[in-house]
Design brief:
By secondary structure, the protein is α/β, with parallel strands linked by helices. The chain has 14 helices and 5 strands. α9 links the parallel β1 and β2. α2 crosses α5. The longest helix is centred in the middle third of the chain and has 22 residues. The N and C termini lie far apart (about 60 Å).
């Protein structure tokens, strides 16, 4: 079993898919990873109020071979970046100076965690599929809908046919008409958003290649997709649709865009020049 590159981000990503008992243990790990580092399995069992067997099952569910590997992995993470592991949520009475610091830190952490989790092989497969596609439809609603629009705009700028859909009915209409040489990029932080999940499943049934961008690699969306790119970032009570989640998705979109521009350099360069000239002519009118 491969050890997660960033253990805290890995725990946060799979949290929604865990059993209630495993979620309780995972939340303790997220709140205080140093507690695991300092504790034997017997000590952690006493603190968490769970059995040693439950702790071992949870460690395996989180991607570790057992409690020992999880403990050592967290110890390495704490040693490298001790200040990043518990960023702290926003409180109703926080002064704006703290708000600025906490939000900025959350966005920075989200970018670093996403970069650490991105699989270059998966990314290259996604770039290759999009480069060869007849058309690329991008599904996303709410905050993820903004990312979908940004991605379609970028693809259009380098000469690729792309359309964003944030309305479920229109997305389903798109999905029903797709062909095997089409690609769908489905964006959902949870990976369970019905307005994204159902059109993505329909697109898959139509034969299209489906790419997921999600925080949860064990979500329903990831399960039906051909390739999954994992973003990072926490939703909190004071930041629903948090910028941390959205900015991590935008990082993935930007990396895909650059990869496509490299792979189709001559076409992309010509398209960027043509669109820039058209916009410049409009501006000087």
């Amino acid at each position: 079993m491969t050890e997660p590159a960033n253990p805290v981000a890995a725990v946060r990503a799979v949290l929604p898919s865990l059993t209630p008992a495993a979620q309780a243990i995972a939340r303790i790990i997220l709140d205080d990873p140093g507690l695991v580092v300092r504790s034997t399995i017997t000590e952690f069992s006493a603190v968490s109020g769970t059995s040693e067997a439950t702790i071992v099952r949870t460690a395996r569910a989180l991607g570790f071979t057992g409690y020992s590997q999880m403990r050592f992995s967290l110890a390495a993470a704490v040693a490298k970046q001790p200040e990043r592991l518990v960023p702290g949520d926003l409180g109703p009475d926080d002064p704006l100076t703290d708000v600025i610091a906490k939000v900025a830190r959350a966005e920075s952490d989200a970018l670093a965690d996403t970069a650490a989790q991105l699989d270059p092989d998966q990314l290259w497969a996604v770039v290759s599929a999009i480069a060869a596609a007849r058309r690329v439809d991008v599904y996303g609603v709410a905050a993820s809908g903004l990312v979908a629009t940004d991605m379609s705009q970028k693809l259009l700028r380098i000469g690729l046919s792309s359309h964003p859909f944030s309305d479920a009915h229109l997305a389903l209409t798109s999905a029903a008409l797709l062909k095997p040489d089409d690609v769908v990029v489905a964006i959902s932080t949870s990976g369970e958003t019905p307005d994204v999940l159902v059109p993505a499943r329909t697109a898959k049934e139509s034969g299209a290649h489906v790419v997921a961008i999600t925080n949860n690699p064990r979500s329903s969306l990831a399960g039906l997709s051909d390739h999954t790119l994992v973003s990072a970032g926490r939703e909190t009570a004071f930041r629903p649709g948090a910028l941390a989640s959205r900015i991590s998705q935008l990082l993935i979109v930007d990396v895909i865009f650059v990869g496509l521009a490299q792979r189709t350099y001559e076409q992309a360069d010509a398209a960027i020049r043509a669109t820039r000239e058209a916009i410049d002519r409009y501006r000087v009118r």
